[in-house]
C-alpha cells in the first residue's frame, strides 16, 4: 500500500511536469529578414543615403575649394615672403582639419540617425511579433538566426503578412 502511494505520487508529479512543459509553446522568427523587408527600413535607408550625399557634396566642395587654394598658393610660392608662405601653410592645415572634422561629424550624424530610426522600427516590429504570437497562443518567440535546431513554428511569414508585406 505504501508503495502504491509513492507510485501514485511520482506519477502525478511526472504528469504535472510534462503538462507544464507542454503548455509552453515556442516559436521563432527571423527578425532581421522582416526588419529589412519593412518599408520603413527602406525609407530610412533612402533618407540616410540622401543626407549622406548632401554631406558628401558639401565636403567635396570644401575639398575642391582647398585644392584650388593650394594650387594658387603653390603658383605664388616664389613671389611671396617666407613669413607669408608659413602663414598660408598654417591656413591650409586649418582648412584640412576643418574638412576632417566635418567628415567625422557627418559620419556620427548619419550613424545616430540610423540608430534612432532602427530603434523606432524595431520597436514597432517587436510589438507586431508579440501581437502575432499572442494571437497564435505562443508563450515564447526566439530569434531564428541564433537557433541551431528550428523545429517550432516559424512566425516570419505570419509577421510579414500582419505588417502587409
Write the layout of secondary structure elements.
Blueprint: H1 2-23, E1 26-29, H2 31-37, H3 39-76, H4 82-136, E2 140-143, E3 153-154, H5 156-163
Tell me about this structure.
- By secondary structure, this protein is mainly α.
- The protein has one domain (24-163): Skp domain (Protein Binding, DinI Protein, Chain A).
- It contains five helices and three strands.
- It has helices spanning 2-23, 31-37, 39-76, 82-136, 156-163, and strands at residues 26-29, 140-143, 153-154.
- Helix 4 (82-136) crosses helix 5 (156-163).
- The protein is rod-shaped and about 85 Å long.
- 8% of the residues are buried.
How would you concisely characterize the structure shown here?
The protein is mainly α.
Number of strands: 3
Helix-strand category: mainly alpha
Mean pLDDT: 87
Shape descriptor reads rod-shaped
CATH T-level topology: Protein Binding, DinI Protein, Chain A
So what's the CATH class? Alpha Beta
Q: Which bin fits the share of residues in helices?
A: over 70%
Strand content: 5-15%
Order of helices and strands: HEHHHEEH
Which spans of ≥5 residues are poorly predicted at pLDDT below 50?
none
Number of helices in the DSSP assignment: 5
Task: Identify the notable features of this structure and list them briefly.
mainly alpha; Protein Binding, DinI Protein, Chain A; three-stranded parallel sheet; 5 helices
